[in-house]
């Protein structure tokens, strides 16, 4: 780790007026600084800023500095969000990690984290060795010839499924961006991972009121049951009236370069009966457009099975 200057601004205004890299839980930033992937000269500890609070009175409003562990057990948090948080990392890390920092965490691609290897995200134009190298954990959706790294966040998948937004603040004011629009697929510029502009800070996460989101879940498939990133995950919410699906939300992780909303699956579910046959038919289009690599072709079928599993768990649990 290289030397750096650490300061702790007392107000949001002070933080936004100071050049540097923001530090909250530090569960990603500190790791990358130790690896010399990130080498900020000035780090701003923002933990004392008034960016906390969880409000469930009309939808869900979460301050960016709220810890993942506290959000997961808060009354009124939608089950898909709570479950995604509880399946993330370890209890110790969840106690430290902030929701804002989690949404901004960098990819876990081993090539990105190894400064001795090329990586277009870390060093634009240097190449992407994952495309022809070790790529079992990499993406099959949203990829490009420049990058195939997956997005690491669990809770971002649940938030994208439920139409969440982030409120961003800067010296010039604030703006609100849908989380599905906030993340950027790599294209020719994989170093641009999101729509966060220089000098901006996530202030809060906003999830619109969706009464039937109380009927939601998150399923995570991984190589081991604790402290492991997803091979594939699925966040689903269903509005079922009688035995018919009126509305649906589905997003997946572990298989795409960004949290991936499956609008075609949602459309196939609407109006269909809540049956295993209908779930399998809807999930058959989940991997449309996938571009598997030499070691991750299994993710195409795993993706479909994970969506079906999440739908079955959700409906069987309500019978």
UniProtKB/TrEMBL annotation:
SMART domains linked: CO_deh_flav_C (SM01092)
InterPro entries attached to this UniProt entry: CO_DH_flav_C, CO_DH_flav_C_dom_sf, Diverse_Substr_Oxidored, FAD-bd_PCMH, FAD-bd_PCMH-like_sf, FAD-bd_PCMH_sub1, FAD-bd_PCMH_sub2, Mopterin_DH_FAD-bd
Keywords: Oxidoreductase
Native source species: Pseudonocardia alaniniphila
Protein name: Xanthine dehydrogenase family protein subunit M
One Pfam match: CO_deh_flav_C
Lineage of source species: Bacteria, Bacillati, Actinomycetota, Actinomycetes, Pseudonocardiales
Domain FAD-binding PCMH-type residue range list: 1-212
Keyword field contains Iron: no
Domain of life according to the entry: Bacteria
Matches recorded under PROSITE patterns: FAD_PCMH
């Amino acid at each position: 780790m290289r030397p750096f200057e650490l300061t702790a601004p007392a107000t949001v205004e002070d933080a936004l007026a100071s050049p540097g890299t923001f530090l909250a839980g530090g569960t990603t930033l500190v790791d990358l600084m130790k690896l010399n992937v990130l080498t900020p000269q000035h780090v701003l500890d923002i933990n004392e800023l008034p960016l906390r609070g969880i409000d469930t009175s009309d939808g869900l409003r979460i301050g960016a500095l709220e810890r993942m562990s506290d959000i997961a057990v808060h009354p009124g948090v939608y089950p898909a969000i709570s479950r995604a948080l509880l399946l993330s990392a370890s209890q110790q890390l969840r106690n430290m990690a902030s929701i804002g920092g989690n949404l901004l965490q960098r990819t876990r691609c081993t090539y990105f984290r190894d400064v001795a290897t090329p990586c277009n995200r870390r060093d634009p134009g240097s190449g992407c060795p994952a495309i022809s190298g070790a790529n079992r954990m990499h993406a099959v959706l949203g990829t490009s010839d420049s990058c195939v790294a997956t997005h690491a966040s669990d809770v971002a998948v649940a938030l994208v499924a439920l139409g969440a937004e982030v409120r961003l603040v800067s010296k010039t004011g604030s703006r609100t961006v849908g989380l599905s629009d906030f993340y950027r697929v790599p294209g020719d510029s994989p170093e641009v991972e999101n729509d966060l502009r220089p000098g901006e800070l996530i202030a809060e996460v906003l999830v619109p009121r969706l009464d039937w989101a109380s009927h939601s879940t998150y399923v995570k498939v991984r190589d081991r049951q604790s402290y492991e990133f997803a091979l594939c995950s699925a966040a689903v919410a269903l509005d079922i009236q009688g035995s018919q699906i009126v509305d649906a939300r589905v997003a997946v992780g572990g298989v795409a370069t960004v949290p991936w909303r499956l609008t075609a699956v949602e459309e196939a579910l609407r109006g269909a009966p809540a049956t295993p046959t209908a779930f399998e038919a809807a999930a058959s289009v989940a991997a449309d457009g996938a571009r598997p690599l030499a070691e991750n072709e299994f993710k195409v079928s795993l993706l479909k099975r994970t969506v079906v599993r999440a739908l079955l768990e959700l409906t069987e649990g309500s019978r």
